[in-house]
Every structure is written in C-alpha cells, then in structure tokens.
C-alpha cells in the first residue's frame, strides 16, 4: 500500500497517544510502541493532521482539520478531535502490522526514523536505581519502548559505562508472567545504557553529553526525555543547561520533574517561573507516581463506566469519603530530607489531594488530557482552605514491642532533637459545590503505623426507614454500605453489603462483593513509574500535574503550613507501630465519622 504525505503545516505536535487509547481513531487499535515504524507513522500522521484512507485503493491521505491547542489555564477550549474522517462513504482503513513494517517516516517528511534518548539525571541515587532503571527495563522487556532508543545516566559521581551497567543490573528483574529470555533481554537492555559524569550546573558538561547523544542518534529524528531524579534546589540549574546545551534540534525535548514542587505557594510559583524561562508548559511533566498506580487510574473507569455507581456519586448518597495512607516504618536514617518537608508536604498536598480531585471531579467532555486536568482544577479551586481546627498532627515516639525497641522520630541522628515536624496528619476537607456540599473528605497519612496500606473508603448514607435496623442493634454504622478501593498492597475493590445468613432465622451480617486483582487477573500489575515513563515518551499528559493544578493545591495548604510553623504547634506523640494519635479519632467524630480502617478486617 503506497502512502504519500503532503507538506506538514507548522503547528504544534498534539499529545501522542499510542497505547490502547480507546478514544483514538481506528489507527490506534493495532499499534504497539515497540514497533518503531508504526510509531513513526502515527507521529507523522498526528503532526501533519492526516488520516490514512481506504479511498482510491487505500493510497489516499486526506488532511484532517488541525486541532486548537489547549492552554494550561484560562477559558476552556474545544478538545482535540481524534475521530476518523469519512470520505465518499468509506471509513479510513486500519493498516495491518505487516503493512506498517515497511513504513519508516518522520515528522519532516524525509523518510528518516526517529529515536528516543532518555537521560536519567541523578543516575547514582536511590530513586534511579530502585525505580527508574527497573521501570525502563520493564518497558523494554514487554516491547513498549521504540525500536531505536538510548539510555544515559548523568551524575557527579565518577563512573564508567560498565560500572553503570553493573549497578543497574543488580536492580533489574523480569515479569513473573514472562520469564522467557530474561537474561538475553537484560543483556540487550544494558547495551543501550551509557554514563556521563558532570556537574549539574555546568553548561560545558551538558555540551559533552549532547555530543554523546548525537553519536547514538545518528541521522535519525532525535527526541529527548530528561528525568530529573535530583534534589529540587538544583532543578533550575539542570533545566537551564539541558535547554541551552542538550535539547533536540529536530524533535521534541521533555523534562520529568519529581516532587516536591516547592515548599509552599510562593516557592512553587517561583519554581514554575524558573522552569518556564527555559521550557514551555507542554515540555514539563510534573510526576506524581501515585497517579500512575493501577487502582487510581481505574477510579474514573469504575465511576464513569458503571451505571450502578455514577448516580450515587454525590452528597445525596455518600456520607463521607476517606483517603488513608499508612507506612509501617519510620525515617530510619533518612530523616534529613523528611524533616525539612514533613508528612503534609510529602504525602497529603500531592498524592492524597490528587486522588481527591480525581474522585470528586465532574464528568468531563472527553478523555483528552486537558479536559481531565481542567475538571481536577475546578475541584481544587472549590475546596475550603484548610485551617488548624481542621487538622491533627502527630509524631511517632520510641516503643518496645516483643522485646524489640523501635526508635522514635527524634532518635534518628539526621533529625534535630527538638524537631516539631509531623510524621502523621489527619485533615477534613470540604468541597463547596452542588455535588459535594457538606460531605467531609477525610485524609490521613502517617509513618511508623501498625500497617502499610493506601486505600479510598466511600461510606454511604444509612437506609431511610430501614426495616432491618433491629437486626443491627443501636450501631447503625454496622449497616452502612461501604465501597473500598485498596490502592496498595494486594490491590482490590470491594463493596460491603448487608446479607441474610442462611438458615431459618432472620440474622444479618456484612459481606463483601470482592474484586481481588491477584485472583481475577493473572498478569502482574505494572509499576506506576512504568506507566508514567511511557506516557511521557508518548506525550500523554493526563496523569501529570499542570501548573494551575499545582497553584490550586498549594493555595489550600500554604496558610495551614505557615500557621503550624509560626505558632510552633507541637505534634501529638504516638507509639511506633500504633494506629496514630488519638486526636485523629476526635477529628473524625467531630463530623460524625468513624475511620473505616478500624474494623475487624484490619
């Protein structure tokens, strides 16, 4: 099949969505990112706004109206239209995998292939070793990386290519359900990994990196992705150097920025201004790895594709919503970083607040990234600003259990003895809109608690005039339906219902309608970093945080954080391995709520 491409209009490349995106044109159905020829065709097709048509024996290529760019703030614009164009009553054809194999094209219509260069800045750090390199290998192992790619590690540490490969190889593993050719795949992947040592603020060192990248890219269209796995105080130095000395000359350049995005509204805004001196907003990918978790991404599917849930998703039926995060370990030698941020900045202002925004948003007009992010911003801007009375903070202390002494937070040698940094926080948030008015959204996050878990708990209202209330005694909460979405570990979704116990009498109990992922799906759930890295390569932004989202999130928490620090509010102490400070239960009781993680199941 011959395909010809007219001259591309000079318009920005819209987000590249190639991974089973059901809302794309039929071209998306057979695509796999691992096939570079398909990937190149789709990239060229979307850049030129073309649609391969079956007209004229499948050889015609009809232009599609370019979509209007959606800005990151301001008035809402029309979403990108990815629908297929019908010509002469014939819908565009879907090319088979074999037909794609012979197509090698690029965005400049030169017929050149494209390549992706992924540079992990801060390659010698824990995050890079434990998360980023293993996630990249998993993508390669399962065929999601393009045919031509190169991975570079960049850090101040002196290291050779061989030493980097040895370091990386110790953290790699193959999927449980795909063990075949594991060693061979690992060897092939490591051959694509290289290292360059340099200072983070040295433009000259990034010029040297640029030369090495060009050697591997050759004459291909070069696309470059930088992952900043470094402390936030050197973000701007690296972004400046990459922008001036190591950006792609003929493809895209994108930068993934790790949290924290500042300490408050002012520092966050300053960071955003600094980044935008060298990058456009659509080049910045602010990563929150919780948005890449399977159950968080499934939240919208659960609500919007199931009629049984969507009508109930409002103040009329939901009594309260709880977002619970707990870790069963403390800082243990890593308190230096944590002490300058605390649990509110580290967990609540980003991970948990993003989940609340996804949970509470209105139905969006499409599955486009900007439509999703626009609705999240509306939720955040509708929230009541947090005050001290809405929050309880705590700090874990030393505790002896089973003959083992567990150290307190201030026993950590990297933490000041008089530190008031909270390791636990519980907060009550309210969304002032017609759907959620008066419904408390309770968030709770802590370290050194009795269990490790992250879950969303939706407690529904009592049944009016319940005929069976006598069967539950005076505790009507026992009769409340509850939807639980367990994000980690052991992912599951279950609904608590009231049910008659088999027998001649009328005895009721609470039972679970349970979707246990490990039992239902044999395939291992991908790591959140795999999903987010692949989305960044594809240009898919829906799981990344936009600058106005960040501004709205900090606007909620900054007044509270300033009050806590200026008034030096002392956190309530709680024993290591306990359920947290007692004050959290009083906070919940203030809104007639009982924490859902206190039941027999826990």
UniProtKB/TrEMBL annotation:
InterPro entries xref list: G6P_DH, G6P_DH_AS, G6P_DH_C, G6P_DH_NAD-bd, NAD(P)-bd_dom_sf
KW Chaperone (keyword) present: no
Enzyme class: oxidoreductase
Domain Glucose-6-phosphate dehydrogenase NAD-binding: from-to ranges: 120-298
GO molecular function, one term: glucose-6-phosphate dehydrogenase activity
Reactions it catalyzes: D-glucose 6-phosphate + NADP(+) = 6-phospho-D-glucono-1,5-lactone + NADPH + H(+)
Pathway terms, separated by semicolons: Carbohydrate degradation; pentose phosphate pathway; D-ribulose 5-phosphate from D-glucose 6-phosphate (oxidative stage): step 1/3
Swiss-Prot/TrEMBL keywords: Carbohydrate metabolism, Glucose metabolism, NADP, Oxidoreductase
PROSITE patterns: G6P_DEHYDROGENASE
Gene Ontology annotations for the cellular component aspect, listed alphabetically: chloroplast stroma
Limits of the Glucose-6-phosphate dehydrogenase C-terminal domain: 301-595
GO biological process: glucose metabolic process; pentose-phosphate shunt, oxidative branch
E.C. code: 1.1.1.49
Region (Disordered): 58-87
PANTHER family: GLUCOSE-6-PHOSPHATE 1-DEHYDROGENASE 2, CHLOROPLASTIC, GLUCOSE-6-PHOSPHATE 1-DEHYDROGENASE G6PD
Protein family (similarity comment): Belongs to the glucose-6-phosphate dehydrogenase family.
Functional summary from the UniProt entry: Catalyzes the rate-limiting step of the oxidative pentose-phosphate pathway, which represents a route for the dissimilation of carbohydrates besides glycolysis.
Protein name: Glucose-6-phosphate 1-dehydrogenase
């Amino acid at each position: 099949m011959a395909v010809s491409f007219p001259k591309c209009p000079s318009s920005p490349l819209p987000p590249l969505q190639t991974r089973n995106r059901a809302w794309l044109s039929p071209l998306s159905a057979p695509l796999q990112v691992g096939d570079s020829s398909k990937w190149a065709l789709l990239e060229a097709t979307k850049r030129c706004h073309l649609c391969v048509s079956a007209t004229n024996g499948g050889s015609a290529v009809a232009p599609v109206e370019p979509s209007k760019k959606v800005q990151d703030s301001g008035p809402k614009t029309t979403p990108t239209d990815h629908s297929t164009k019908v010509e002469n009553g014939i819908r565009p054809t879907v090319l088979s995998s074999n037909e794609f194999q012979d197509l090698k094209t690029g965005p400049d219509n030169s017929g050149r292939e494209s390549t992706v260069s992924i540079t992990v800045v801060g390659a010698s750090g824990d995050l890079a070793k434990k998360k980023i390199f293993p996630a990249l290998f998993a993508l390669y192992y399962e065929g999601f990386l393009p045919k031509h790619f190169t991975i570079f590690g960049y850090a101040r540490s002196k290291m050779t290519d061989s030493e980097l490969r040895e370091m990386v190889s110790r953290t790699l593993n193959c999927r449980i359900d795909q063990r075949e050719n594991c060693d061979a795949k690992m060897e092939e992947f490591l051959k694509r990994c290289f290292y360059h040592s340099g200072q983070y603020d040295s433009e000259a060192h990034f010029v040297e990196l640029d030369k090495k990248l060009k050697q591997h890219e050759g004459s291909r269209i070069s696309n470059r992705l930088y992952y900043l796995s470094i402390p936030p105080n050197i973000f701007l130095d690296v972004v400046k150097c990459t922008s001036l000395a190591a950006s792609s000359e003929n493809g895209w350049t994108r930068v993934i920025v790790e949290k924290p995005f500042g300490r408050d509204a002012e520092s966050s805004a300053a960071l955003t201004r600094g980044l935008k001196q060298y990058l456009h907003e659509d080049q910045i990918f602010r990563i929150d790895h919780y948005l890449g978790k399977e159950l968080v991404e499934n939240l919208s599917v659960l609500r919007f594709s199931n009629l049984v849930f969507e009508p109930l998703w409002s103040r009329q039926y939901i009594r309260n919503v709880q977002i619970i995060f707990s870790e069963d370990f403390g800082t243990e030698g890593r308190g230096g970083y944590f002490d300058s941020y605390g649990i509110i900045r580290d967990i609540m202002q980003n991970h948990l607040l993003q989940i609340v925004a996804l949970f509470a948003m209105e139905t969006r007009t499409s599955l486009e990234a900007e439509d999703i992010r626009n609705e999240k911003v509306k939720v955040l801007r509708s929230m009541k600003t947090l005050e001290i009375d809405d929050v309880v903070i705590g700090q874990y202390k030393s505790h002896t259990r089973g003959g083992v002494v567990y150290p307190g937070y201030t026993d950590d040698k990297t933490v000041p003895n008089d530190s008031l940094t909270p390791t636990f926080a519980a907060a009550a948030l309210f969304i002032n809109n017609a759907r959620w008015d008066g419904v408390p959204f309770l968030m709770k996050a802590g370290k050194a608690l009795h269990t490790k878990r992250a879950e969303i708990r939706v407690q529904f209202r009592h049944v009016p005039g319940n005929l069976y209330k006598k069967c539950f005694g005076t505790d009507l909460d026992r009769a409340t339906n509850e939807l639980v979405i367990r994000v980690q570990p052991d992912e599951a979704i279950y609904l608590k219902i009231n049910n008659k116990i088999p027998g001649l009498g009328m005895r009721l109990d609470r039972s679970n309608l349970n979707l246990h992922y490990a039992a239902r799906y044999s395939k291992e759930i991908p790591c959140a970093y795999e999903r987010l890295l692949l989305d960044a390569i594809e240009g898919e932004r829906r799981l990344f945080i936009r600058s106005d989202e960040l501004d709205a999130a900090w606007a909620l928490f900054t007044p509270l954080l300033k009050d806590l620090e200026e008034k030096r509010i002392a956190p309530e102490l709680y024993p290591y391995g306990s359920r947290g400070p007692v004050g959290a239960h009083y906070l919940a009781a203030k809104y007639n709520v009982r924490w859902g993680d206190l039941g027999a199941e826990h």
